[in-house]
Design a protein that fits this description.
Number of helices of chain A: 13
CATH class of chain B: Mainly Alpha
Distance between the termini of chain B: 20 Å
CATH architecture of chain B: Orthogonal Bundle
Oligomer: heterodimer
Order of helices and strands of chain B: HHHHHHHHHHHH
Number of domains of chain B: 1
Largest interface: A-B, 33 and 26 residues
Number of helices of chain B: 12
Number of strands of chain B: 0
Shape of chain A: elongated
Structural class of chain A: alpha+beta
Number of strands of chain A: 21
CATH superfamily of the largest domain in chain A: P-loop containing nucleotide triphosphate hydrolases
Helix content of chain A: 25-40%
Radius of gyration of chain B: 23 Å
Number of domains of chain A: 2
CATH superfamily of chain B: MetI-like
CATH architecture of the largest domain in chain A: 3-Layer(aba) Sandwich
Largest sheet of chain B: none
Strand content of chain A: 25-35%
Helix content of chain B: over 70%
Low-confidence stretches of chain A: 387-439
Chain lengths: ~450, ~280
């Protein structure tokens, strides 16, 4: 067990390609840290540098306060689960798990005890004598984890361990990994490109983009206070809507009407003429069900809903709109970076599953302006965040406030606002850790 | 799997049978010849009129040609095994380096290995004969093992580096993270995984050495090092008018047996894809 510290880590490949640029991270003892980002963002490279499979171009990595830059992987005492598991096919499950112990020349009795313990923990007892080739994907994955936990390593490193499993099994194993990590309390670094895994597993999540660390915060903070356009677009599914707006004397001019935002939302606004307003799908609602008491805190507008997707627990309405060309191009660029493709500028609106908004017609929608973020399209910075950061302890305050709002809504107002405010936190709540450590 | 119509299936079976008969007919004839008595040899019949083991008795211990055949058999086995062993061990390290490491001259090694492998044997044999005589390697085991290595080593390097390349690099990295040194990772993970490749290579090397005739006949003069293929040409009949065909056939059958046995033993290992289950299925 040990803390892992990354100090200004750089990685440049032989051909001059800089995969990781000046990444600094402080991973606390026992913390579950997620490295997340679209493919090619350098997250796996960071992990491989920690474990020692990749040379560090510059910067320092410390494990348990000791600089390990030049140490071979075997001397770092870390254990790693590979994306394709990398089980030894010529050995039985038992010997696979025992492999690190055999290398360390552990006495047989102790090997047996520890392998049995690990197998017990991962429910692999009845497979111990089988070969990896005869196991299912999930079982192989568990063997790989067994091999990692059998040794008293200083930290666990996971490199997209669930990406080869099917969706259902992935969900189960996710919970299993989370449970295991809490039980063992060992520092864990987990690489994934899946933002759901990132949100649900991590104590803290580090978002990387093109080798640069964008933001490292608790899942809740990432969701509620994304540092920039990239993080805002990456975290959340469906992603945050970005609405182009021109700054006017008394507010913003958007394709959906003029809006005025609460003061704290625009504190970072300088002399920008055009901004992007970021609004999560669940911050919209069907205007007809919004409580009168909160209605004037938001923007009510009419829009043409062309497609509705009903998912049972909620539904998404799609509202296409026209945006200036340069903004469209920038949004498309952002989408490409996020490994998706924007076909058209559209709003995604999450509605209560009970809502019966008709498809293909104009509907009256409502946007909660208290939750809107303002982004500078040139730099991508979140101008709202600047204001939140300026007040010390703002994030906790905001969190508490948000929770209080949900409770209040649940108890005394109608279903309308609770649906709007409640649907997001619901999703995040599941992910929230009791050990939420805000840096 | 494609479904075949009855007509197609019959054609496949007939075609297959024809090929098998074509390939095995000489072997069958050789077998039949080896059981024929000397008087029977030229009777133009496939089956011996009266099967006899006379030819085998002649070449096995106690027979008249035993002092020619038995040392040759010993030489063949010894020389081929040693040449194979050295080739496989050396090729294992070379192929691992070629598959895993990035060093300058990698392509040069591979292409020169290929060049050596296809170099015509007859063109080296005369200079080698002179050289061996001068340095005292003529008619010795090393005198044959060394030229055999020049044939087997390049081929072994090529086949094994192909096998090593197939092994996912993660296996080795996993071993290193698990606490293995490079040597431990090689010995405990890579070599067992490459076992099918090692066996395939070993068998191919063994055959090359076992079947060689040109080096065998040119670089030896006595039974001290003469291998079986060369020794066969020294068989004589009971008189100069009797062809030694029967004895040669019997010897040929005997030297074929180890080859067949080897292939049968190792075919499962050769075919088995041992890396199954290493990575996601």
């Amino acid at each position: 067990m040990a803390a892992i510290t990354l100090k200004h880590i750089n990685k440049e490949y032989g051909d001059g390609y800089a995969a990781v640029k000046d990444v600094s991270l402080d991973i606390g003892d026992g913390e579950f840290m997620i490295l997340v980002g679209p493919s090619g963002c350098g997250k796996s490279t960071v992990l491989r540098m920690i474990v020692g499979l990749e040379d560090i171009t510059s910067g320092d990595i410390e494990i348990g306060g000791q600089r390990v830059n030049e140490k071979a992987p075997r001397d770092r005492n870390l254990s790693m689960v590979f994306q394709n598991y990398a089980l030894y096919p010529h050995l039985t499950v038992y010997e696979n798990i025992a492999f690190p112990l055999r290398l360390a020349k552990t006495p047989d009795a102790q090997v047996d005890e520890r392998v049995r313990n690990a197998a017990d923990l991962l429910e692999l007892e009845e497979h111990l004598e089988r070969k990896p080739a005869n196991l299912s994907g999930g079982q192989r994955q568990r063997v790989a984890m067994g091999r990692a936990i059998v040794r008293e390593a200083q930290a666990f490193l996971f490199d997209e361990p669930l990406s080869n499993l099917d969706a259902k099994l992935r969900g189960q194993m996710r919970t299993e990994i989370s449970r295991l990590q809490k039980r063992l309390g060992i520092t864990t670094v987990y690489v994934t490109h899946d933002q759901v895994e990132a949100m649900t597993l991590g104590d803290r999540v580090a978002v990387l983009r093109k080798g640069i660390l964008q933001q490292c915060a608790t899942p809740r903070e990432l969701y509620e206070q994304p540092a920039n356009l990239f993080v805002a677009g990456f975290i959340g599914s469906p992603p945050m809507n970005f609405i182009p707006a021109t700054v006017t004397d008394d507010g913003f001019n958007t394709p959906f009407g003029d809006v005025q935002l609460p003061g704290d939302r625009t504190a970072g606004l300088g002399d920008q003429e055009v901004v992007l307003l970021g609004a999560r799908p669940e911050h919209f609602d069907d205007a007809s069900v919004v409580d009168e008491a909160v209605k004037d805190r938001g923007l009510t507008f009419d829009a043409h809903v062309d497609v509705i997707e009903w998912l049972g627990n909620e539904q998404f309405a799609y509202v296409p709109y026209e945006a200036p060309e340069d903004i469209t191009r920038q949004l498309a660029e952002l989408e490409r970076e996020l490994d998706s493709e924007a076909l058209r500028t559209q709003l995604v609106v999450a509605l209560d599953a009970a809502s019966r908004l008709p498809e293909g017609q104009t509907a009256s929608l409502w946007l909660d302006l208290r939750k809107v973020h303002v982004f500078d399209p040139a730099t991508g910075d979140n101008l709202t965040l600047v204001s939140a950061d300026s007040a010390p302890g703002a994030s906790e305050e905001l969190e508490r406030e948000a929770e209080a709002t949900v409770e209040r809504d649940m108890s005394d107002t109608g279903p309308a606002d609770s649906a709007a405010a409640g649907s997001t936190p619901d999703r995040v709540d599941g992910a929230e850790r009791p050990t939420d450590t805000t840096p | 799997m494609r479904e075949y119509s009855t007509r197609q299936r019959v054609l496949w079976i007939v075609g297959g049978a024809l090929i098998i008969i074509y390939c095995l007919f000489p072997v069958a004839w050789l077998t039949s010849l080896s059981f024929k008595a000397p008087a029977d040899l030229t009777n133009r019949q496939f089956l011996p009129t009266e099967p006899s083991t006379e030819n085998y008795e002649q070449i096995l211990p106690g027979g008249s040609a035993a002092d020619l055949f038995m040392p040759a058999l010993r030489n063949s086995i010894g020389i081929s095994l040693i040449a194979t062993f050295i080739a496989v061990v050396l090729a294992m390290f070379a192929a691992y380096a070629i598959a895993r490491l990035d060093f300058s001259g990698k392509r040069l090694i591979l292409t020169s290995a290929l060049a050596v492998a296809i170099f015509p044997v007859v063109s080296i044999v005369t200079p080698l004969f002179n050289l061996w005589r001068n340095i005292g390697l003529y008619d010795t085991w090393p005198g044959l093992i060394i030229p055999y290595l020049s044939l087997t080593l390049p081929l072994s390097i090529w086949t094994m580096s192909a096998f090593f390349r197939e092994i996912p690099w993660e296996m080795e990295q996993a071993a290193q993270v698990d606490g293995a040194t490079s040597w431990q990772a090689f010995r405990r993970v890579i070599v067992p995984l490459a076992a099918p490749g090692v066996f395939t290579t070993a068998i191919i090397s063994f055959f090359i050495a076992w079947n060689d005739f040109v080096y065998g006949i040119s670089l030896t003069s006595t039974s001290a090092a003469r291998p079986v293929p060369a020794a066969l040409s020294f068989f004589t009949g009971e008189s100069q008018f009797v062809e030694p065909t029967g004895a040669i056939s019997a010897a040929a059958i005997i030297v074929t047996i180890p080859v067949v046995v080897l292939v049968l033993i190792f075919q499962r290992r050769i075919v088995a894809g041992l890396t199954n289950g290493a990575v996601k299925g």
